[in-house]
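Lab manual, section 2.4: Encoding a predicted structure.

Procedure: take the sequence of the chain (639 residues), apply the prediction step described in section 2.3, and record the output as structure tokens. A sample record is shown.
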Amino acid sequence: MNPKKKQQQKATVKPKPVVDNKNTLRYMYLIIFAAAFIVYANTFRNGYVLDDFSVIKENWVIKKGTEGIPVIMKTSYRYGYWSSADELYRPLSLVMFALEWEFWPDNPKPGHVINVLLYAFICILLFTTLRKILWRFTVFLPFLAALIFALHPIHTEVVANIKSRDELLSFFFLLLTLRFAFNYVESSKAKWIFYGAFSYFLAFMSKESAIVFLAVIPLTLYFFSNASLGKNLFFSGLMIIPALMFLAIRSKVLANQPEIAPISMVDNLLVAAPDTLTRLATAIKILGKYMWLLLVPYPLVSDYSYNQIPIEGWGSMRVLVSFIVLVAMGIFAFWKFKTKNIISYSILFFFITMSIYSNIVMLIGSSFGERFLFVPSIALCLLVAWGLIKIFKTPMENAPVPKMSLLFKSYRLPFMVLLPVFLIYSVAVFSRNKEWESDLIRNTADVRKSPDSAHMRYYYGLVLMKDKAHNDKNEITHPEFLDSAIVNFSIAAKIVPTFADAYDQIGLAYYRKNMNDSALKYYELALHYNPTKSITYSNMGVIYFNNKQFDKAMEVYEKAVKYDPAFSDAWMNLGSTLGTLRKYKEAIYAFKKCLDYNPQNAMVHYFIGITYKQLGDESNSSLYLNKAAQLDPKYAQTK
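Recorded output:
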């Protein structure tokens, strides 16, 4: 063969394309997962805290396990907690809690482990989704943003509080929906529309705030895809279908529940604003506080309710500074909108995802919560990562992923700047997780940080009375803590004079101090501000029963179950009162109503057994007495 011809053939051979180093990507996944998992691993020893009680531990529907799932699907979020009325429909997390109770009853550890694992996988999903979205940029940008997100202390409430599974699940499915949106505009395959709609529907079934992604999806496609406007709007428009499906289901589920009480100033301090302008000014100040807490996540507190954040008008410097910053951000975002600037996107993403929590569009059940920053925090993570890469003039454009050593060598300056921040974040997360170990530890820590919060004072009083004044046998061993509890409840009532719950707990503390007259006085005060408060009627019934005023006891117990038909303890106490009055058939009915909501109550099975015995029904008596003995061996000795 001619040597010249051979040389020409060799020259026409195409070079092999440069591809991503898969080992580097695996290392990135591992680093992100390990960072999220390790800093939250100390939550595994934590117990049930805060809303975990109303959503899980004291929720009779959840405690039915798999048997309660049909009820979950057709009732509101807190229905199983004394039939509490609310405007929330979040069945997906509740179904998970019911399954966990089925396999691990009254055990918070699996719930904490699942939360941490889910969070770690979300951080990986965030990285892969951002990489898909930011395809024009270096892989180090989404990696750094995901790592900041994984370690940011503002997320401790969501991860450490089992109840916040709703937030985790919703974000997981929202990220999937964004991925499917980009898959669709890249391939035009209809299957990605179906997957996106299904994922978006599951996000709604996790938490209603998914509605904001009706704006986030088209915004993200506009900024980071090559999709035409028509293609963008086609996919985004079809996402209205799962939204409407969810809203229709939610409307039907919530249609038949009891009337919902208006939002209280105890829950949302903006209710106490004297006029609309002052309310707007305070809401803007709170938005400024949210942004500051993203930048400086300290101190972290589980409750910022009235009057921890004072209501202020437009003359306040904090209001004006927040307003100027927000307006400047808005002007910049719209100025750079056409150029598809990443800062503009981040600002708009923050505004959209915070809008539902801002109390500017509408009043919600809370004025401030760290959990509300869970999704909006992505804006900061993205801005910080992008800004550091830009400042140090490291490569910003997309390129094949090299070996890990070469990648970190190229971006060592941005990473080294963040390394001490990551260490501080890790220590802060680890420390805050320990404060979420129990209500006693959390409330003791947080009442110091939020002393002017009525809720925080109330919560602290509760743990003093529950965990400090009693021993394991529920005996009063440290009455001095009852006095401390009364002080904190009284401070809460001073902050919010209409705080019925605080008066009820003062009454309970006096009852435990054997000061029944004082207890009844505060119970009456609680009923003055909330005439439908079933727990207060039940607490009064205990005093009347002990004083052998059985007719009065029966009267208040009947009111307790009238205002809360799922109040199992009130049904049990009503049954006991009816039995004492020799109204045995009515007593059995009340006891069985108790079992509807607390089927594992051994004492009630025992009471039914002895009541049937009074009626001469030995067959049913034996049936219930045997069941009581099975549930609690101590009743085997009293058969």
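Check your result against the sample. Residues 5-17 have pLDDT under 50 and may be disordered.
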